[in-house]
Write a structure and sequence with these properties.
about 425 residues, alpha+beta, Beta-lactamase, eight-stranded antiparallel beta sheet, three-stranded mixed beta sheet, 12 helices, 17 strands, about 20% strand
Length: about 425
């Protein structure tokens, strides 16, 4: 084993952790390090940070490559990453704390806080004289909090051909930083998403999975219900109790020295992404006004692993209860069935969940759950293995990258038995 690999393992595994030798195979973790180092050496990513936890202990942590090649900054375990849609999990948990308090209910219509959504419309296709035409019709049923959490509200990111122009005219959709980007907005999030009440949805509420603005609208409702910003709610209810000091919506001044640069991988070539919404973004010294519950947060691999460990432990960590075990179970159960993925996987309240990962060649046990982000960050929790795994880099686009799939494989090959460890 190379000295750097051994040092990674020695730093990651606490000397007092009884039984840890059986939890992971050092040679297997060495293969994982060799792979991550190789991705960087081959120019498929500028830098990567990976964290693996088992039974509440960090059993692997590795930072490799550069956080910013042009500035000569080396990637560190505490490097900061734009986590994009990994924000959705924290927004979902924040919403569920309000459900637990009886302030919200999953069946509540969102028009209670956003009155304009009571008259929302849907763009539907119908056949007329042998040709397909589109018509705009009223929603068939009210949009609920549960629809937002399961991405069945019919709210897309406005990328459909028949929606794109109308969304662009209202400052939304792909023309506005691929739709999910709000870091450059100078209004609050409720103002930023208000035009959705006037724009057609992509599907009827409850009828199919449509990935889009639902979590941003949920963040707005959280603000309306609490009278606080989403940033304040997440800080008070999640990140401060868990000690996640590096998870926030924007950075100021010297904090930028830890922010990882974004790169683009196209045709096997790695180049620095452009400035602005389609690349580096406005997360450093930006407006910091529209706190996007769908894709706005910055975090570290270790911070995010801490959040996931709270979920794995049933909603509590180190004496701080965030949500109840019953709520964790509800959030990580499939709510959609065939509407989403069928027999292999489904979708819960903020997470993709797996019924039969082996049927599609995916490592891990039944009941694992996770998601990822547009900048090519990824995570999952596998309760049967006592496992939390996070891998972070900054690639947008990440065309041709196999990082996530191979990282998963190499994590599992290094683990002991799922029941006995």
């Amino acid at each position: 084993m190379r000295p750097s690999v051994l040092m990674t393992l020695l730093l990651a595994v606490p000397a007092h952790a009884a039984g840890q030798a059986a939890a992971v195979d050092p040679a297997g973790m060495g293969r994982l390090t060799d792979y991550l180092d190789g991705v960087v050496a081959e120019g498929k990513a500028a830098g990567i940070v990976a964290v693996v936890m088992r039974d509440g202990q960090v059993v692997y942590q590795h930072a490799t490559g550069m956080a910013d090649r042009e500035a000569g900054r080396v990637m560190e375990p505490a490097s900061l990453f734009r986590i994009a849609s990994q924000t959705k999990a924290l927004t979902s948990v924040a919403a569920m704390t309000l459900v637990e308090e009886g302030v919200l209910a999953l069946s509540d219509p969102i028009s209670r806080w956003l009155p304009g959504m009571a008259s929302a419309t849907v763009s539907e296709s119908e056949d007329s004289a042998g040709t397909s035409v589109r018509r705009v019709v009223p929603v068939a049923r009210p949009i609920t909090i549960r629809h937002l959490l399961t991405h069945t509200a019919g709210m897309s990111y406005g990328g459909e051909g028949w929606l794109r122009e109308a969304y662009a005219a209202r400052g939304l959709g792909p023309a506005a930083g691929q739709g999910w980007y709000f870091a450059d907005k100078t209004t609050d999030i409720c103002t930023a998403v208000a035009p959705l009440a006037d724009l057609p949805l992509a599907a009827q509420p409850g009828e199919r999975f449509v990935y889009g603005y639902g979590s941003d609208v949920l963040g707005c409702i959280i603000e309306r219900v609490t009278g606080q910003s989403l940033a304040e709610v997440i800080t008070e209810r999640i990140t401060t109790p868990l000690g996640m000091t590096d998870t926030k919506f924007c950075l100021r001044g010297a904090e930028g020295a830890r922010l990882t640069a974004v790169y683009a991988l196209r045709g096997g070539e790695l180049t620095r992404a452009v400035d602005g919404p389609l690349g580096q973004g406005d997360y450093l010294d930006g407006p910091c006004q529209a706190f996007a519950g769908g894709a706005g947060l910055i975090s570290t691999a270790r911070d995010y692993a801490t959040f996931l460990e709270m979920m794995r432990q049933g909603g509590s960590l180190r004496g701080h209860r965030i949500i109840s075990p019953a709520t964790v179970a509800l959030m990580t159960s499939d709510h959609l069935g065939e509407v989403y993925g069928g027999t292999a996987y489904g979708f819960g309240l903020g997470f993709q969940v797996w019924h039969d990962p082996a049927s599609v060649g995916r490592y891990g046990a039944v009941g694992q759950y996770g998601w990822g982000g547009a900048y090519h960050t990824n995570y999952w929790v596998d309760p049967a293995y006592g496992l939390v795994a996070v891998v972070m880099t900054q690639l947008m686009p990440a065309n041709g990258s196999t990082l996530h799939d191979r990282y998963r494989t190499l994590v599992y090959q290094a683990l002991g038995d799922p029941t006995g460890h």
